[in-house]
Amino acid sequence: MKILSKIWNGFLDILGIRRNSKYVKNYLNEANMRSAVFMSAVVFVLEAWLILRQTHKYIVPSVAALETVTFQAVFRIIFQNTSNFILLLFFGVAMFVYSLQYLSSKKSLSKMIIAIVFGGLSLAVCCLLPLEFQYGSIILDATKTTQPKVIYGIFKVIFYISVFLFDVGIIFASIYRYKGGKRASLSSVMVISLFAFVCLMFGVMVSYGDFISTRVFYDAAGNKVTMNDAQHSFAYEHKQIICFLMFTIYIGCLLIWNPLISIGVLGTLFLGFYLAISNVVNLGGRRFPEGDEVNYLTFFISLTMVCISIYNQRISEAKKDEELEELATKDTLTGLLSFEYFTLKVKETIAKYNIQRGDSVYLFINITNFKVYNDQKGFEKGNEFLKTVGQIINETFKELALVSRQSDDHFVVFSANQNIEEKIKEIARRVESQDADVKPSIKVGAAAVYNPDEDPHYAVEKARYAHAELKRMPSNKLILWYDDKMHDNYLMVQYIVTHIDEAIKNGYIKAFYQPVVWSKGRTLCGVEALARWIDPKYGFLSPAKFVPALESAQLVYKLDKEILRIVCADIRHNLDNGLPALPVSINFSRADFGLIDIVDVVSSTVEQYKIPHELLHVEITESALTNETDTLKNTINRLHEKGFTIWLDDFGSGYSSFNVLKDYDFDVLKLDMAFLIGFNGNEKAKALIKSVISLAEQIGMKTLCEGVETAEQAAFLEEASCGRLQGYLYGKPLSYEELMKKIDEGEYNLAKKMID
Question: pLDDT grade, residue 225 (50/70/90)?
């Protein structure tokens, strides 16, 4: 049964019985228009040649033979010999230009005007149809001529009518297309259909006329043979039936709609024309040779098979293109617009509806708790949930809205700026109702259209920035609007991201050093390197601005590598010049661990400057240990193997501190300054600090406390056996030059022992 079903489905596909998608229909229509460009060009060239030929062979000799040359006589000669060719020449140009207009993605006033002009000229020639009767080219009265000529006259009248309808149709279609009408409209189908019909009628008219026109022939020896003698002969016939066959090839092979339509049209045409020319012999004309009857049938069958083959080839190409377009224009998971196609449609929408500032809004929608949902429900359920959320958003924003899944659980919307907050509340309510346990919801950043010419990528980034600000707020707000203050911050972020390479190249990035002292004796035992950016445009940039911006853009590794290089260069300078070489600790961002091989970077830089490994301490922030556990453990182990000391920075700032002590092997524990907030009068803080220092000592870790600002704090930490102290009490971060000057002037007493 499966084999039979497969055969049956294949049969349906071959004959085009299955319903095609809108995309495939449009593809076939455009393919027909591309073919029409070629066909109309051939018609134009052929008719131009025939006009020249007729002029040279018939018109010029006939005019020369006139005893009295009058306008009426000359016009009659020209009309009788070239009217059909002139008609088709204008017809061909009109179709050629309209085809180009149809295929063009841009409006073209010139193409519309040219199509209308030549369609109008062809229409004007059609209006000369009465002259065909006056000059005897068409005679429909059977009492005045033979029946074949009456039939020929009927064919010619139908030809004129079809050209007339085509001309009217192409004028209308050109205007409709210029006004922004749909390409795959009824008007375009009508034009291409009438174009095909005109070509076929011309072929029928010429070929049929050939069978009834000439009554005297010559055999191979040059002997004259009359029609009566030739009626039953296979040797004597004209070959203008080729005109009919040529146009059927054109129409059958170049204009493809559906195999059943092709078979029906070609079958009717071939059968009707065969019956017409077969009947000519009974009316005194030439017979249709028996051999040509076989060829005629064979030609029809072959042409039909070619049509079916071309149709299926085009269908195959159309479906492949449709699949590629689906991939390019739709998100494969949710079926929403792909982000790049979304931005393209936004531009088109803004232009089409003349959207101005404030009329519409960009929304960046993020699902909260999606990671929890994914972990609990599994990957497949997570994907289903994303589809559901996409559908909810799409259903909520129905009118003049575009919806896309940008990535992961992030959706973007371009919508009319109407009832936005109410719609966001509705989406949040429906999303939350999807799971009572996890309670997923949404957070939304919104940015109104500021400038119609603004790049949608840029506008979406503003909405994303508002969303990022909202996530940092300890509130239950669902939506945050991008404002002027955010805009200033956003511009700064963009400046930082786009100028980091320039800042590194030109030396705007500096390493500042904050002193670290032993708690016993308060002698200088090292420094922490901190990044500073001194910009020629903005001056001193705060690390609170440029570090998060670079982390978000995944460019912070460039900053950290530059600070490492500067530190190693400064240490090398001191070693080469007999100056104090202090141990320096460098803090790597947690983003670095996924972007670079820190061990390789540190090792290669240290080797480049030939720095003793004990002079460089690597700080890892506690927050970096929440992800990529195996990667971090491997990194720490490799650094230890190469002789580097590893510090745990900001201990106590997170919620998994004691797990960190259990799972990782650090040399120094650096207490976060938060421990010292409210130090005075807070006995709990003092007890906790003592306990942590004692715990660190028991598991073999040294300690350092940052944020020390008062002598009282320092005295307490010394009493609690904290090994190192760091804070404004002992100095703010200093430039290399300032640090060395203070050491040289004796403001800092150097410890005799720098390393534990």
Answer: low
Mean pLDDT computed over every residue of the chain: 85
Secondary structure (3-state) at 435 = coil
Task: Kindly indicate whether the domain formed by 339-482 is annotated with CATH number 3.30.70.20.
Answer: no
Q: For domain 492-744, which CATH number applies: 1.10.10.10, 2.40.290.10, 3.20.20.450, 3.40.50.1980? A: 3.20.20.450
Give kind and range of the element (H or E) at residue 669: strand 668-671
pLDDT at 39 over 70: yes
Which residues, listed in sequence order, are joined to residue 303 by a DSSP beta bridge?
A: none
Nearest to 460 by CA among 389, 409, 403, 395: 403
Q: Show the 3-state SS of 15-39.
A: CCCCCCCHHHHHHHHHHHHHHHHHH
Give dist(CA 190, CA 193) in Å, integer.
5
Comparing 755 with 559, the larger pLDDT belongs to 559
Determine the number of helices (DSSP H) and then strands (DSSP E) in the chain. Answer: 27, 16
DSSP string, 67-118: SS--HHHHHHHHHHHHHHHHHHHHHHHHHHHHHHHHH-SS--HHHHHHHHHH
d(CA 668, CA 649): 9
Q: Whose structure tokens read 């129409």?
A: 251
Give per-residue pLDDT as tens, 558-578.
999 999 999 999 999 999 999
Q: What are 505-533's pLDDT values in tens digits? A: 999 999 999 999 999 999 999 999 999 99
